[in-house]
Each structure stands twice: as structure tokens, then as C-alpha cells.
Amino acid sequence: MCGIVGYVGRKEVVPVIIEGLRRLEYRGYDSAGIAIGGPESALLQVCRAPGKLQKLEDVLHDKPLKGTFGIGHTRWATHGRPTEENAHPHRDCTGRIVVVHNGIVENYLELKHELIGKGHKFVTETDTEIIAHLIEQIQKDAEAGDKPISLEDAVRQAVKHLTGAFALGILSSAEPDKIIAARLGPPVVIGVGEGEYFIASDVPGILHHTRNMYFMADGDMAILTPDGVTLTNFAGEPVKRELQRIQWDPIQAEKGGYKHFMLKEIWEQPRAIRDTTLGRFSLDSGKVYLGEMDIDDEELAAASSINIAACGTSWHAGMAGKYMIERLARLPVDVDYASEYRYRNPIPDRNALGLLITQSGETADTLAAQREMKNLGSKTVAICNVVGAMVAREAHGAIYTHAGPEIGVASTKAFTSQLTALFLLALKLGQLRGRLDKEKSVALMEELSRTPAKIEEVLRISSPQCEQLAKDFSNARDFLYLGRGIHFPIALEGALKLKEISYIHAEGYPAGEMKHGPNALIDETLPVVVLASRDESDPASKLRYEKTLSNIQEVTARSGRVIAIATEGDTTIGQLVEHVIHIPATIELLSPLLEIVPLQLLAYYIAVRRGCDVDQPRNLAKSVTVE
């Protein structure tokens, strides 16, 4: 979950690394550090600071460093407090080797005791420091045997001793103009420029310098020098990775005049949904085209069930996707938290299809669930936002969401893009299984194509409403979110957004479960957000709406303060509740795409009113790349 940036080339290195770290600060902001070298410096220069990246920039302003190669790091603490001492990069005993690390070394205490026995002295509480000492010891042993080895060979030996997950960036003053990168778990991308090369934990960190990138796989090592990049496995054998051209515009990763990335990304959702649907369906033929599949239509049609695994917001998307797939394809769907999937001893079914949902494509728990599914004989499909990410490379098929870079820790446009991809998959499966004819398919596609414009309307109308509501409710201690059917996952997601960025306790609950506990919480201080939209063409939706009105009356009878999300033209609900936010009419299965937008805005404006760090909420990181 930490951020790593490295550079070797002709430019002055400090601005390149600091700029990259700033673009990756969403991955970690407990502390930051940099190590650089150059032709005028015999030793590596290291500078570190606790807190956010600005603290490191302040130190570098007072004591500038110069060089042409280096590595930097923003930390999300796992082992050791967020202090300057524990900030990366970490040195060995000689000060010759420095290491930055994203991940967890699970056997670090065992290795630390072994190294202490050989005379090493440690100065931090981190697991990372042992990696630098281990590389030092390996080179020391080789020199004692009159067989000195290179930095890359020492790293190859060192990683064999490490248990856990790691992405590494390593320098040695004995071998200037060289960066070693290694991956086992957390992501690493290699940027290829003209006479300059980069490493980073994520694409935005180096996108302003190059769009040409290698995505390292588990077990890969990269050696970067001004002359080029060499890719091998941990055994030293050459590996071939496809050089990929990133299509994101770097400007997409900038705030573009918005106060926060999260607000920008909320407003980008109509564009993200259009990009996700682009070229994927035809209103003439009524067919859905998912071209990045190594699973033929016959296999998809023959699937006995679908097992969805995801984490956090992506899990909520999976829950909504269950309703879409079961309704349109009549195919049973299970939805698991990816972190729990392996531990429930899932039943093997070679005809089941595994579906992994992840924005980054590098979420450790989701990758583990995917590998378990494959071990059980299932083929897997990934819904992912990052082309070439690990989950897509290991899947038999991918549906890329094309949402563009999402910098805010609280996911917004990635979520609605995932819902869009799930709807397309549900349509495809429904067609293959003979549940949807051309007429019905075209009608659903037409409604999907109208959704971005409807979201633009929701943004325009509900944004000032939510900003005003934030003034009334920003001091609340608790919130309750209620929904029925496909709206229940949206209640969960609305509650998650609020707790993530405002630190207000919030719960999402099935509206029908109110009598089974939550009614005890309701009093005049509790805001209750109720998802009460309706689809007039759907009898089941009408019934759900009527039952939801009964739930609202239960709340108001107990003096609860209701904020309702309702469909335009609904005059009934306004007579029952204190506040109503209207959304355009749409079909039941697409209503989540409209409902979530005011919930995102409400969470955003409440967090701003409370003075919270919206883009970088405490104790959270954007990509959870370690378990």
C-alpha cells in the first residue's frame, strides 16, 4: 500500500521522484523519504521525514540534494510507528545499500535474529531494514570467498530468504546508475523513456514522463540503467513482458480545478460510464461484445454458477451485480469477501465461473481468491480498471472499466464503472442463455446509453442539495442507510463512503430487517438515508417501493430524520419525510448508478464540513496490496 518511485537517466532526479511521490501519496502518507546518487557523490544521500510528503519537501528545500538516479517512498505503516527513523529508504550497516519496500516480510524477526548473530545492528522497528542487511551479508559472504557478486545477484539470493509479499526498489553506492526492482505480490511498473527509465508502484507516479510501461509479474526482477531495462525471474533467467502503451491522459490524474480528487472523480462518472460502454454493444444487432475473453460463448453459456470475490466498494458492486445477473441471465451467483473466500473451504465446481472485481487489479486478497478459484478448476474473469494488472493477466478474460486513474482513496467512478461492466456481463450472459431476445436487449442497451446524461442531471441538481444537507447533518454521530433488493448494496456503499471520509459511524441495512434490531437505534438524533426509487414498469419494484414507504413510516414514527432518494415525479414521499433528493426515472437494475451519486456527494460535503482529509482519510490506503 506504500508508494515507490525510482529514476535513472540524465535529469536531475529529486524533482522527478518528488513529483512521482506526490501523485502516489494516496498509497501512503505516514512518512516519506528519498535516496539519490550521482557522478559527484561517492555515497548515497538519504533524506526522510515523518508525516505527509510536504514535510519531506520542506526538508529538501532547506538542504537540497543533487543526483541522476534514486528511489523514493511514501509509507503506509505496517511494522513500526510512522516516525522519521522508520521511514524508508532503509540502509544496511555500511550505508552502502538502500532499500524501499511495499509489502510485509512475515519472517523478518527470524531473519533479524540471524543477522544480529552475525554482528548486524538495527536502528528501526521495521521489517524492511532486514532486507538491506540481508543483501549486505550476502555480498560480504561472497567477497570473503573471493567470489564477489553484483547487486542484482545478491538481491536474487536475498529474495529466496523472504516470506511474505514485497515490491522492492534497491540502490548501492558501489554500483551507481543502477536500480533493482523486484516483485512478489504488490505491484511494480517499469517506465521506458528516451535514455531514462522509471519504477513506480502505480501508473500515475510516472505517467507525466512516459506512457510506455512494463507491468512486472510475481517473481520478476528488473535491472534499470541508463542503457536500458533487463527483465529476469528470481533465478536470473530472462523473461519477456509486453511493453504496453497507457492510454490515460496525464491531465486526468490532476485535480483540474476541483478542490479534491474525490469531487473531480464524482463528476467524471458520466464520462467513465460512456468509456466503459464504448464499442461494447450494438443497438442494431442487440449484441454485447466483450472482446478480451479467452472463454468462448459456449463455455459462458454452460456456466453452472458464478462466484464473485471482491473487497470493499468492489464487493458492493458485486452484490449489485448478483441481482443483475440473476435477473437477466437466471444464473445463480454467490458473492464473497475476497479476504474470506479461501477460508470457507469452497466446493469445487469446474463449471462455475469465477468473477474478480478490483479497481487496481492488484488487491492481495482478490488475487488470492482468484488463485483458489483456479485451483478448484474454475475459469476466471476480471473486472479491472488497470490494463495489464495482475488480476487480468492471471484471468481467462477481462472486462476493463476504462474509468481512468482514480486518486481519491474513497472509490467513486471505479464503482459506477464496475456496475456498468457487470450490467454488460449480465446482458451477455442473458443473451447466451436464451433469456434475452433482441428486442429486450436493445431496450436495456438504450436505457444504459441514457444513463450518463441522467447522472449529469443528478450531479447538477443534487450537488447543492447535498451541500446544504451537510450543514444540517455534519455533527451527527451515527447514520443509518436502508435499501431493499438491489438497493441494499447501494445502502452499504453509501454508508461506507460516509465512514471512510468523515469518520462518522454509519451502517447499511436491508430495510426489511428494521424490526429485527435497528429500530432500537432510532431517535430524533439519527439521520436515516432511505433508497426509495421506483420503476413503474416493474411490478416487483412497485411492491418494494410500497414496503419501503412502510419502513419510512416506522422511522418517522420514532422521530428519526429521513433523507430519501426518490424518483422524479414522486409526490407521495415528500409528504412523509424531511428531505428528498430526486433522481431521474430508470429501470430497476440501473437505478444504483443514479442513487449512489447523491450518497457520494453527501459523504463528500459532510467530510469537508468536518475538516477531514477527503482524498487521504486516516488509516486507509488506495490499494490494499498486502493481506
UniProtKB/TrEMBL annotation:
It is an enzyme of class 2 (transferase). GO terms for biological process: carbohydrate metabolic process; fructose 6-phosphate metabolic process; protein N-linked glycosylation; UDP-N-acetylglucosamine metabolic process. Keywords: Aminotransferase, Cytoplasm, Glutamine amidotransferase, Repeat, Transferase. The keyword Transferase applies. Its main location: cytoplasm. It is found in: Cytoplasm. This is Glutamine--fructose-6-phosphate aminotransferase [isomerizing]. It comes from Occallatibacter riparius. The lineage of its organism: Bacteria, Pseudomonadati, Acidobacteriota, Terriglobia, Terriglobales. The gene is glmS.
